[in-house]
Structures are given as structure tokens and as C-alpha cells.
Design a protein that fits this description.
The complex is a heterodimer. By secondary structure, chain A is mainly α. Helix content of chain A is 70%, strand content 5%. Chain A folds into two domains: 161 residues, no CATH class; 68 residues. Chain A has ten helices and four strands, in the order H-H-H-E-E-E-H-H-H-H-E-H-H-H. In chain A, a hairpin with a 2-residue loop joins strand 2 and strand 3. In chain A, helix 2 crosses helix 3 and helix 9 packs across helix 10. Chain A is globular and about 55 Å long. The two termini of chain A are 23 Å apart. In chain B, the strands form three sheets. Chain B has a six-stranded mixed beta sheet with strand order 8-9-10-5-11-12, with helices on both faces. Chain B has a four-stranded antiparallel beta sheet with strand order 4-3-6-7, covered by helices on one side. Helices cover 56% and strands 10% of the residues of chain B. By secondary structure, chain B is an alpha/beta fold. The chains are: A mainly alpha, B alpha/beta.
Chain lengths: 280, 685
């Protein structure tokens, strides 16, 4: 939205995973505990996810305050913001590495991974349904929020032309902060889902999903929420198709190659607005 | 918060201790600089043999290798402004090439050397060719992806040893009586020689057409392209040069350690080198060397010093970690340093003059305005027809006295290039630029509809029309920014439809922009030189080797640029940064830059916008003078008075169609023109 790659987003996501882990810890759930059922499960998941969303959201806002705002105030070039983002990303990674070590931390199993039914040869498991369902729900919420609320309008206006938006009475600082907060919330939710699904956390866990998320966003078209959803879906499918054809270890190579190809032929993404056409 | 702010201010003061050093360095003459460089080189040569073997090897890796890599990355990031986050890939390619050639194929390390460099260069071109059209952030992420691809390929390819890596890489054979083997010192000297070569290369490039092109691309890529800079080729060269330096570093490293595996080439290695470049100051050679030295040396020093242990303890308390070695905190500190540098001192410790100007200051109000109008314009193109710009200005009051007009000195010749055989020189009735049935549609909107205009050589041709009539679109079609939907554009008897903007500039059309688009952080004379470079041929090899043609072009180019500044009347500001010139002078500079490309036609897009009557009169004189030098001038203008006063012929556009053409007086009487400007009674509010 803000035409800015937040490299630190991977780490916001990582913080979401860690926060989920600590939230479970805080709720007294032990690695040895058996999976929960019914209402207890729902309550736990919601509580954990809220905690993670809050943690990631706050972290994102903090990052914005410390690393981006001073640059924006000065009107620094984008290169500067990008370098800062990398700096923040490394700092956060290493902070967690120093604090929690460089090994994987295990997650307790909250959700029983039961096979629900088979669909054209694919296992539809409870955890998969949870991830997919939550993603859809969050996306719809975000889409509605952006389209209808006052703040959402502010965000979209700022994305198009920050200066004019400011002149029209939009508080840019607040909008940017909100954008980061929203991004953080989603990253936190994703962190919980990731934790429940993969049941592991490590300091550098955010890197690949971060790059993939960016790839998905580019694939769909930057600044376009529906595009991002479509991009995510496509990337996931393509990547796994590539993995079956070429072998699992080439999965990431495949994902990056897709990114390069897309940018080559459609630099603004599949649903992206036609940027860069109208220059000079 | 208050305390924090005070702390910040303190940090800033501490950091700026190096400012006097940087300023002093900037003031020194070449001889002094050479003396200092020679002194440092002497230290670099004489001291290491006195050190223990451990420190000798530290000086080779990481210090020396980092310095070499940082110089290479500096070409890409510092000079050309392309953020490459996968630089390690080229280092890896160099290392793996050496490894495979010397182990599987049994070559000597010396034989593998040129191939390590060339393969890395090829990798740079392979990565660059498809991706360099991308801008900024996208390029960064793609290069990052490329770095990962290279590493993963190495990890999964049997012939590259997979995760185990490759062992038994050959050391270089004897050279001038020195055995290499595992001794660190000879490798250190080898690296030193490579660093020296890289410095010479860099210096030569920055002071050439190539370096200027890079600066221009960094400042305003579209304007650079319009001034005839081969943006793509030049960016590719930057990538290739950076990559080959990386490959060289990879060769030295691989042949020294004789064992490599994918873990030697992680993503964060790219970041370390980037941190070195940023820390020292992008684009500044002393800065980059100092930055790389610091980043290579400090962790090793701290690891072995009491201060390191103390620092580790402090950091452990701060982070709640339990790490027993400072190197574990290395990356954390680099990350912190990157943020701190960008927040407090974005120009780096020892900045280059130009980059300091770019990074440190906020854009001036005028520039900010330019950004706004441009953004608005971007949004509007494609829906031309919406009301924008102010209406036609009233005719300028006919006043006497030319104010501070161009002085009537002996007029220096405007640069020309050999004309194509088809042209016959400026005879009357000779059409230099012809548009035939030009049509340009954006989606459903037709911005230009079957416009046909023939422009005579040596005339001043005006294009006027109400807002959104398609005037700027016409310019954009002619200069190759847009490809017209249909129709022909013929310059000097040759079609130029579909050519790239820089090709069209070379063919003989130069332009200025509606909102001034100079290269703000280059001096006036450099701005003009970028234009003049459109007629120059020197590329990387010529600049590096200092070939006679390169020297000749530099010499004549500079003289010519000054003459042109004199021609437009701003030679006294030749060495000022373009951004510091007053508005009227910026317009003049833009015209000088356009004329420098040696065009047969100059397109001026609203040259009088925002000028006061005195400036306008001076502008009219300048336009006449340009015509007097044998060039054809085409101008878009809102100021009807100016157009009527200066033009030989005028065409009027309205809603994308030509509604009238002829001498100004006739056009002024045309019923359709009056209607277009004033509206029919039925339309009138």
C-alpha cells in the first residue's frame, strides 16, 4: 500500500509465532498436553491468536516509529527506507536468536490433526481447514475495512498521493501507523496459524514466508488486497506443482523463478494497476 | 522519550566527529589525496609482515575480501543506485567456478582466474538482462531471490558437491618466487593488488560518460533516457562490473581456503557487504574502504579483546541472551548500525559530495511541488480531457526593455552532428519533422486523433490548445515515451515510430519537460555533459583503459558544455548543483542540456510556465537564438502572447484533433480556434 517493502515484516511474523507460543505457555498449555476439543479449543485458539495479533501489531508500530518515521519526515529516498528495513529485520532476528537460542522451539499440539474427508485424492485435515478458513475470514474483514471505513479511505488516499491526502486533512502519521498495525495484526494471526500448523518456532523462521508473501503480493499486484489473495493462492499452487515435478528441494528456486518471470512480463502484477506506464 | 531524544542528539554529535575529516578531504587537491593514498598503501604493504599469522589471515579474510567486495557492490549500489541484495551470488559463482575447474577439470588456479571473473560477469548479465527494467524495491527483492537460487542450486547439485561442498581446490602456483599454499600473507597481497585495480577502475569510470550516465539514472531515470542515456546498457554494465569484482573476490577466497560449501554464501553475507557500503558512504571510495575495513576488522578485534567480552556481557544483559562470544552479536550490531546510519547519518561516515546532497536533505519546496504535479499528471494521463492546468494566460504586456536578457555576445556554435544523407541543410520548405495521421488512444480515450503536422526546418513551430488537448501526449509520442496507436512520425526522412527514447534523442530530437526534470544533485555543467554524451561513444572499456577517444571526448565535451551554458547565459553557475539554481536558470539549464544532445529539433514543453514577464522576454530571445543557430524549435505553450510573438507557424489542438494550422495571425482569426478557447455560446456557463 505504501509502496514500501517492509523487510521487517518477516520478523513481525516471527514475533507472531513466538507470541503464540508464549500465549499458549501463559494459558498453561504444555507440550505434553493432549489436543483440546470443542469450545475449549475455540477459546484457546481465539485467545492465542488475539495475543499474537496484538504483539505483532505493537511490534510493527514500534518498528515504524523507530525506523521509518524519521526517514519519512526527512523525505529520504526509498533506498534508505529499504536499508533501514533490512537493518531492523536483522536486528530482530538476532535479538530472538540471542534470547531464545538458534534451535527450533516446539509447539504444544492444541488442535487434533484429524482427517475430515478426502477430496479428489487430497487430505482435508482439520488444521488445513482452520488455516484456509481463517485466511478467508481475515481477508474479507480487511477488504471491507479498507473499502468502507474512514481510516481505510485515508489509507487508500495516502497510498495514491500522500501529499494531497495530507492537504485534505488526512493525518499521514496516523495512517501509516495504522497500516503498519493492520499489517502486524495479520502477520500475528498468520503466526498463530503457522505455529498451529508446523508446530515449531525459530528466530529465522520469518525469512522464507516473508519473501514468499512479498512474491505473492507482487504476483497479485502491489496495493491490491484481492490481488494479494489471488497471488498467494497461485504461488502456493505453482510452488507445490513445481515441487512435484522437479523435486521438493527445488521448491524455493521455483518460487523465486516465478517471481522473476512475473516481474519480467507484468511488472505490476496480475491485478495490479498500470503503474509506470504514464511517466514523463 | 525526552531522555531518548537527548541521547539521539548526543549520538549525532559523536558521529559527526568525522565530518571535519571528510570536509578536509573534499578540499584537498589531487596531489595531497595521492600522498595520503600512497601513505595508506605503504602502511598496508609494510605492516602485515610484522603481524602474527592469525592477524595476517584476518587481514586477508574477512578484511581484504570484504573491501574488494564492497568496492564491487559500490559500483552497483553507490554509483548506479541499484539495490542488489544478492551480491553474494557473484562471489559464490566466482568461488564455485574456481572450485569446479581446479578439481574436476584439473586446471591450475591461475588458469581458472579469468573464467571465475567472466562467469561471474555472465551471471551478472543473466540476472540483469531480464530484471534491470524493474525499479528500486522490485529489483532488490529479485536480486535477493537470485542470491538464494544460486545457493540452493549449489546445495542441490551433485556436481557442485551439494551441502558438503567442494574440497581440494588448487592454490595458485608460484608467482614472482612466492609460494601461496596456505600462507595468508601472499593472498593478502594479491587481494591488495585487486583492491588497487578496483579503485583505479572505479575512479576512471566515475569520471567518464559511464559514471555520469549512472548518476543521471540514479537521479531521474526517465529524464536520463530522454537525454539519450542508454539506461539499460549502462545499468547492465554496472551489474557486470560489480559482478566481475565479486567473481574475483570469490576466486581469491576459494583458492586460499581450498574448501567451500553453500554455507559460505548465505543471504546475510550480501547484507554485510551492503552494510559496509552504507556505513562508509555510498559512492565514496575512501568511505566504502573504511566501512568494509571496520566491518571486517572490528568483530575479529573484539573477539580477541577484553572490550569484546565486556560488550558481550552488556549485550547479554540487554537482550536477555546468554551468548559467550561477541561474533554471535555481530549480525545484530550490523542490523542496528544500518538503522542508525540511515536515521542519523544516511550519507555514511565518509560521504561522497553528491550522495551527501541526495540523502541528507529533504527535497526543496519546488521539488516537492514537482512531485505533486507529476503524481497528479500520472493519474491523469490516460484520461486526458479532464480539465487540468490553468487556462490560456493573457497575452504578455508588450513592454520595452529586455531586462536581464541574454547578452549579445558572439554566439558559440551549437553542437551539430553529421546529418543523414537525405537532408539537404536548412533550405526553406524542407520538412524536418513530419507527423502523419498520428493517433494515440489510451483504452477507450483517444488523446490524439489523426493529427498531421509538417514542421519546416529552421522554423519556430508552436503547438497550442486548451487543457487536455493532447499537446504533451503529442510530445510523448514524438520522443518515444508512448508508442502511437497508429500514424507515422518521420524525422529527416526516416521513421522513428517505435524507437526507444534514447534512440530518438540520438536521431536528433531533444526535449525539455513541463515540470523541470534536471539531475538535481549534479552540477550544471555535468547536466549539460549528460546531454552531450548522447553524441559520445565511449563505454566502459574506453573509460577504463583511458583510450584517446575517451580523453578527446571528455576534453571537447567539457569545453562544449561550458560554451552552451554561456550560450543560455548561466555560465557563472556552471559548478553549482542544479538544485541550487533559481527557477529561471533551471529552465535555461534544461534547454542547454537538450541542445547539447546535438538535435535537429528541440521540443520545449511549456518553457515559460511560471516565468515572470521579464524572464519570458529573455526566453523569447533565447528561443530565437536557438533558431538562429540552425535548429528547429517546437514549443508547447499556454502563453498565447508568447506563442504569437515568437512562432512562425502555429498548430492548434483541441480534444486531440488539429483544428487549425498556419501563421499566428491567421490562426488567431480562425473561428474554430476562437470557439475552442472561448466556447460556443451554448457551452458557455
Amino acid at each position: 500500500m505504501l509502496r514500501l517493502i517492509n523487510f521487517a515484516h518477516s520478523e513481525i511474523f516471527m514475533i507472531g509465532i513466538f507470541a503464540s507460543l508464549f500465549a499458549m505457555d501463559g494459558l498453561g498449555i504444555d507440550v505434553a498436553d493432549s489436543p483440546k476439543k470443542g469450545l475449549a479449543l475455540a477459546a484457546t485458539l481465539v485467545a492465542v491468536m488475539l495475543a499474537a495479533m496484538l504483539a505483532s501489531g505493537m511490534a510493527a508500530v514500534a518498528v515504524e516509529r523507530v525506523a521509518y518515521r524519521p526517514l519519512r519526515r526527512r523525505g529520504a529516498p526509498r533506498l534508505a527506507a529499504l536499508i533501514t528495513a533490512i537493518g531492523v529485520s536483522l536486528f530482530l532476528q538476532e535479538l530472538f536468536a540471542a534470547r531464545y537460542g538458534r534451535e527450533f522451539l516446539g509447539f504444544p499440539r492444541v488442535l487434533e490433526k484429524r482427517r475430515l474427508f478426502e477430496f479428489h485424492g487430497a487430505d482435508i485435515r482439520t488444521d488445513k481447514v482452520l488455516v484456509f478458513g481463517s485466511a478467508i475470514v481475515l481477508m474479507v474483514c480487511l477488504d471491507r475495512f479498507m473499502a468502507t471505513s474512514r481510516l481505510g479511505r485515508g489509507v487508500r488516499a495516502t497510498a495514491q498521493d500522500a501529499e494531497t491526502a495530507a492537504l485534505m486533512g488526512v493525518d499521514i502519521d496516523r495512517v501509516v501507523m495504522l497500516t503498519f498495525f493492520l499489517g502486524g495484526l495479520l502477520a500475528g494471526a498468520a503466526g498463530t496459524l503457522y505455529g498451529v500448523f508446523f508446530e515449531a518456532a525459530r528466530y529465522d523462521i520469518g525469512f522464507l514466508p516473508g519473501v514468499k508473501a512479498f512474491t505473492a503480493a507482487v504476483l497479485g499486484g502491489i496495493g491490491n488486497i484481492r490481488g494479494a489473495l489471488l497471488g498467494g493462492l497461485l504461488l502456493g499452487l505453482l510452488e507445490n506443482w513445481g515441487a512435484t515435478v522437479l523435486g521438493g528441494e527445488w521448491k524455493d528456486v521455483f518460487a523465486f523463478s516465478v517471481l522473476v518471470l512475473v516481474l519480467m512480463f507484468r511488472p505490476t502484477g496480475l491485478l495490479g494497476e498500470r503503474l509506470g506506464r504514464a511517466r514523463a | 522519550m525526552q531522555r531518548l531524544r537527548a541521547r539521539f542528539a548526543e549520538v549525532r554529535r559523536h558521529v559527526s566527529v568525522v565530518d571535519p575529516v571528510a570536509r578536509w578531504w573534499g578540499r584537498q587537491r589531487l596531489r595531497m589525496k595521492l600522498t595520503v593514498a600512497a601513505a595508506l598503501a605503504t602502511v598496508a604493504i609494510a605492516v602485515p609482515p610484522q603481524l602474527t599469522r592469525y592477524w595476517q589471515s584476518v587481514l586477508f579474510f574477512p578484511v581484504g575480501v570484504y573491501m574488494l567486495l564492497a568496492l564491487g557492490l559500490n559500483i552497483v549500489v553507490g554509483a548506479a543506485g541499484l539495490l542488489d541484495l544478492g551480491y553474494v551470488a557473484f562471489y559464490a559463482v566466482g568461488a564455485y567456478t574456481t572450485a569446479v575447474l581446479t578439481t574436476t577439470h584439473g586446471w591450475t588456479a591461475w588458469q581458472a582466474l579469468p573464467f571465475a571473473v567472466i562467469f561471474a560477469m555472465v551471471a551478472g548479465v543473466l540476472l540483469g538482462a531480464p530484471t534491470l527494467r524493474l525499479r528500486g524495491d522490485y529489483l532488490a527483492i529479485v536480486t535477493l531471490g537470485f542470491g538464494e537460487i544460486v545457493r540452493i542450486v549449489a546445495q542441490n547439485s551433485g556436481s557442485l558437491g551439494e551441502a558438503r561442498g567442494i574440497t581440494g581446490i588448487a592454490h595458485p602456483g608460484k608467482l614472482v618466487g612466492t609460494d601461496f599454499e596456505l600462507l595468508p600473507l601472499p593472498y593478502y597481497y594479491l587481494t591488495l593488488v585487486a583492491i588497487g585495480l578496483a579503485i583505479v577502475l572505479m575512479l576512471r569510470l566515475t569520471r567518464s560518460r559511464v559514471g555520469r550516465s549512472w548518476s543521471a539514472i540514479r537521479e531521474d531515470e526517465d529524464a536520463a533516457e530522454a537525454m539519450g542515456v542508454h539506461t539499460f546498457t549502462m545499468k547492465l554494465w554496472a551489474f557486470a562490473m560489480g559482478a566481475s569484482t565479486g567473481g574475483l573476490a570469490g576466486w581469491v577466497y576459494a583458492s586460499k581456503v581450498s574448501f567451500i560449501n553453500p554455507d559460505n554464501f548465505p543471504f546475510f553475507f550480501s547484507v554485510i557487504i551492503l552494510a559496509a557500503v552504507v556505513l562508509g558512504g555510498m559512492g565514496s571510495i575512501p568511505g566504502v574502504l573504511a566501512g568494509a575495513f571496520a566491518i571486517g576488522f572490528l568483530p575479529e578485534y573484539l573477539r580477541n579483546a577484553a572490550a569484546g567480552a565486556w560488550l558481550t556481557d552488556r549485550l547479554n544483559t540487554l537482550t536477555g541472551g546468554h551468548v559467550n562470544n561477541i561474533t554471535e552479536y555481530r549480525v545484530l550490531l550490523f542490523g542496528l548500525a544500518l538503522v542508525a546510519m540511515m536515521v542519523f547519518r544516511p550519507q555514511g561516515l565518509l560521504p561522497s559530495r553528491q550522495r551527501a546532497a541526495e540523502l541528507a536533505e529533504a527535497p526543496s519546496p519546488e521539488q516537492a511541488m514537482t512531485v505533486v504535479t507529476e503524481a497528479a499528471e500520472d493519474a491523469l494521463v490516460g484520461t486526458e480531457g479532464a480539465g487540468r492546468e490553468h487556462g490560456p494566460a493573457p497575452p504578455a504586456p508588450p513592454g520595452a526593455g529586455t531586462g536581464k536578457a541574454v547578452t549579445g555576445r558572439a554566439e558559440p556554435a551549437v553542437p551539430t552532428r553529421p546529418r543523414p544523407a537525405t537532408s539537404k541543410g536548412p533550405t526553406h520548405g524542407d520538412i524536418v519533422l513530419e507527423l502523419a495521421d498520428l493517433t494515440m488512444g489510451f483504452g477507450g480515450v483517444v488523446a490524439l486523433h489523426r493529427v498531421s503536422i509538417g514542421i519546416e526546418r529552421g522554423g519556430i513551430f508552436g503547438i497550442i490548445g486548451p487543457n487536455g488537448a493532447g499537446k504533451t501526449t503529442l510530445f510523448n509520442c514524438v520522443t518515444g515515451v508512448f508508442r502511437p496507436t497508429s500514424g507515422a512520425i518521420v524525422l529527416n526522412g526516416r521513421s522513428i515510430v517505435g524507437r526507444k527514447p534514447h534512440r530518438i534523442t540520438e536521431a536528433g530530437i531533444a526535449r525539455t519537460f513541463q515540470n523541470i526534470r534536471l539531475f538535481p544533485n549534479m552540477t550544471a555543467v555535468e547536466n549539460v555533459l549528460v546531454g552531450a554524451d548522447a553524441r559520445h561513444r565511449t563505454s566502459v572499456p574506453g573509460a577504463v583503459l583511458g583510450l584517446p577517444r575517451h580523453r578527446r571526448e571528455e576534453r571537447t565535451g567539457r569545453a562544449e558544455a561550458r560554451r552552451l551554458l554561456d550560450y543560455v547565459g548561466i555560465v557563472h553557475r556552471a559548478d553549482d548543483l542544479a538544485r541550487n539554481l533559481p527557477y529561471g536558470d533551471q529552465r535555461r539549464l534544461e534547454i542547454a542540456r537538450a541542445v547539447a544532445t546535438g538535435p535537429s529539433v528541440v521540443l520545449l514543453d511549456e518553457p515559460a510556465a511560471g516565468m515572470n514577464p521579464t524572464e519570458k522576454r529573455a526566453l523569447i530571445e533565447l528561443i530565437r537564438k536557438i533558431r538562429g543557430s540552425g535548429l528547429t524549435v517546437v514549443l508547447i505553450e499556454h502563453d498565447v502572447g508568447l506563442v504569437m510573438g515568437v512562432c512562425d507557424r502555429v498548430a492548434v489542438l483541441d480534444f486531440g484533433e488539429k483544428i487549425a494550422e498556419g501563421p499566428p495571425a491567421a490562426v488567431q482569426q480562425d473561428a474554430r480556434v476562437i470557439e475552442a478557447y472561448l466556447g460556443t455560446t451554448a457551452d458557455a456557463p
